[in-house]
């Protein structure tokens, strides 16, 4: 039995997308998504391929197994060693802030640090940023991600504001930090009781939402 309907629903929930928001990604209707999730219909093969490519999930797994949250958010199973450089047309070049970048900024008191890029088989309508978790970047005490993981973030835009509540985010302003979004009278990224940044038009380019993660083997 195909698992496509179950996996579409789980993808939506994990990524914080409504049925309409998910449908908009693939030029479908909310009714289409509802029918897939309720097993009243299945998407056409070209739509399945688009979904698999967009979320960087092997098409066979999208169809044949019930994906776990870990499989949806972790990319380590989908990067064959010879992929980088072998087929660059299918890779996206992403700005990468690793621990050396933050170490250099600290040494140079905020000066210009060396910029690196990584290439990953990802696809998003929004700008992407990769950040390595390390002691150089503050994070909440209950942060659920291990040190030295590479977190992939998408830049927050008006189109995804409704998906932010309780999701992990990154602020790359003068004092970068990882935090959790809280949506109420305003939208803010919270590090702890004393540190938060409020989302507004002026600061918007500095706000990022977790897109996925890649756990490095050291």
UniProtKB/TrEMBL annotation:
Which stretches make up the HTH cro/C1-type domain? 8-62
Keyword set includes Transcription regulation: no
Q: Which GO terms describe its molecular function?
A: DNA binding
Q: Which of UniProt's keywords are assigned here?
A: DNA-binding
InterPro entries to which the protein is assigned, alphabetical: Cro/C1-type_HTH, Lambda_DNA-bd_dom_sf
Keyword DNA-binding found: yes
Read off the CDD domains from this record: HTH_XRE
- State a single Pfam family of this protein: HTH_19
For this protein, the record's SMART domains field holds: HTH_XRE
Superkingdom of this protein's organism: Bacteria
Write down what this protein is called. Helix-turn-helix domain protein
Q: What is the lineage of its organism?
A: Bacteria, Pseudomonadati, Bacteroidota, Sphingobacteriia, Sphingobacteriales
